[in-house]
Amino acid sequence: MKKINLNIVGLSYSQTQSGAYALVLGEVNGYRRLPIIIGGFEAQAIAIEIEKVTPSRPLTHDLFKSFAQSYHITIQEVIIYNLVDGIFYAKLVCVDNTNKTVEIDARTSDAIALAVRFECPICIYEFILATAGIVIEGADFVLLEDMEAPVEETISATSLNYYASLPDEELKAKLQEAIWEEAYEKAAKIRDILSRRKSV
User: Fold this and answer.
1) Strand partners, 122
2) What angle do CA 166, 171, 6 make, to 5 degrees?
3) How far apart are CA 164 and CA 162, in angstroms?
4) pLDDT for 113-161, tens place per residue?
5) Please, are residues 5 and 122 in contact by the beta-carbon 8 Å criterion?
6) In sequence order, what are the beta bridge partners of 135?
7) Cα distance between residue 102 and residue 137, in whole Å
8) CA-CA distance, 92 to 110, in Å (whole number)?
9) What structural domains does the chain harbor?
10) For residues 27 and 129, is the Cβ–Cβ distance under 8 A?
């Protein structure tokens, strides 16, 4: 299966889920974006490593890296390999000093927090990005330096019911509007509604 390389292009506070963040991954040399909702702890772990902040004591992901390196294990790549009911599945492709390769299942947020520490590629299969990705027109953007600013539009349960009642063409127009406004969490919710309709 064809793999696409991703990089981290945005991380912002989610107004719809308390303590959650929207992590936006971008297709390398492409215009598709993949928004993923992650927990606050994992968002902090990713942001701290990207900003090269050294905590006074090792965080869990730092401990994992030190433990792995002590036994000569490295992470070769992180692969987002499946999407089921709006949940992304990821695995770590690990290699030891004898060149033995082992794949370990992981939450996507943890896998990405480790990927930034091991400086390894983050990949996704084309069929998942084609299903869940959002096409962005124009240049890349970075929100990491303003991580705590609430930039996502709130989308309530009432709004979800409203979007679910719209016909496909109108829903696609709303999706493009959300992308234009950079309301990626809202766009992800609309994308999920459209994806569920396709699978029925």
Assistant:
1) 6, 78
2) 145
3) 5
4) 999 999 999 999 999 999 898 887 654 443 333 333 333 334 455 566 6
5) yes
6) 32
7) 38
8) 10
9) 3-199 (3.10.690.10)
10) yes
